[in-house]
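May I ask for a single protein's sequence together with how it folds?
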Amino acid sequence: MPLNGIRVPYTDEADWLEKRRAGIGASQIAAALGLDPYTSQYSLWAEKTGELPPGDPSEPMLWGRRLEAAILDEWESRNQPLQARERGSMFRHHYETWATCTTDGVAYEGDDPLFPVQVKTGFVGWDEIPDHVALQVNWEQYVTGLIEHPAKVVLLPASRKLLEYDHEYDVDLTVSVLAGIGEFRSWVERRVPPPVDASGSTAHALAQRFLGNVGEEVELEGVEVQLVRDLLAAKESAKLAQERVGLLENRVKEAMGNAEVATFQGRTLATWKRQTRKGYVVEPSEFRRLLVKEKELAHVG
């Protein structure tokens, strides 16, 4: 099947970021739908509308970029005669021109493009491709038109063993995404922010968007005053809950004494084992960590 995505040329990273901001890329599609564990809809909206400049890459992102070429080179060597081309190429869909992606690589056999190759680095391997990654790869297939063969996700976890996963193109998933993405696109076009959520991503975006003006005051409406009351009540509840957690943890520790494992009817309900904290910023120390086995406790009447 031919690669029918339209190439989008760019001159440098600044140009790429500007063109990426005009559409919704594969790595952004999960966030646009509210399904990304790291980036919220609000944070992505603030970036798309220019309310926030693109942030500097995090340490994991930085190393992921550094390792990407080496991982693709190794994948090529293990999958001859296939070659990973189109590294860092940007595409837009031939019809939905706002739908874009930047490929880590595209597998070619001779002059024939076959499927996208997505590179990931992480701490551990997966039993299956996470939902937000599946959305990303499925979007790359949709944008490029390379849907006949499964896309490849190549993961290098901390174990340093290269893992490979297949993703079959899911047309129903694409239909669902296209149906659900309209609301986010409307927020961007109308410059109306999506509802805030409790994520750290949204908190960071708010802090960056509203840096604060010294001495400025704002008069709250009645509903907003209630938000402040609810916040104070929630903080008090959280404080009481944390105190309750501390009390119950200490009572369980007292009941366990020197034992490492607490059981009931042959089931392990909690462990309190000695651990060592390595000395990086703080001095190394040893401590015991209490873990409650929730699944086991659910079986106890």
Observations:
- The mean pLDDT is 89.
